[in-house]
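Researcher: Let's continue the batch. This sequence belongs to peptidylprolyl isomerase, and it's 267 residues. Same format as the previous ones, please.
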Amino acid sequence: MTRFLVLALCTLALLVSAKEEEQKLQWTDDDGLEIKIIRPIKAEKCTLKSQEGDVLDQFYKLTDKDGKEIGSNFGKKPYTFTLGKGQVIPGMERAMTGMCVGEKRKVVIPGSLGFGDKGRERDDIKGDQTLYYTVQLVDLFRNVPGEKWETEEGMTIEVTHKIEADKCKKSESGDTIHQQYVLHLEDGTFVDSSWSRNAPFIFKLNRGEVIKGMDLAMTGMCEGEKRKVIIPYELGYGEDGRPPQIPGKSRLYFDITLEKLIKKDEL
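Model: Same format as before. Here are the structure tokens for peptidylprolyl isomerase:
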């Protein structure tokens, strides 16, 4: 009898443990966001979990409720974005938080956390449409902060990811810059981003191909370095601005990355 009782208690403990583990792998938030981890990563192999500010490489597949594919980049180039910067829909921000590299999830995102009541015409996504994603975290990059300073011209530059001096390939006039950027106005209004096009902006440094403030901001920068830059209107788009997105006399708030640097003597 005692042996039977012990066996029954052990079985119950295993069932409770299995149920708790299942709950850790699947949950639904109060606002309807559903997440299920379909490829977990063992704790000893998960050295970092994604958090705000991390740069993520992501595979995704998007379907409708019937399983019809809307879009996918599995087997192609990963989609790259910075977590917590509004570069993806709110539901995706949350779905990709706390993930290990290699982890895969199924995610159900309600319309209010997706493309809202307007939808997205180019993908035939209707207003308030529920989105069914399979996502995988391919890689994760975490910044190492550096120094901050103000220039003689009135710009503010903050190194958000520094490159050590012995590993720095530094930009000079005439070099070809492959730059990723996000631009906001002073009130936080989003203007433009190269990340949304998944391709860098390419120009030659100090050759008048970009606004003066950007030439200054990218000079002396290391390949792989990231900066936050505040550019006064005199070094940006001036008194006239660039209507309709950039009003006159606008200070420009950039997050920039020197993704690739081709020295002028390498051309």
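Researcher: Any comment?
Model: The radius of gyration is 23 Å.
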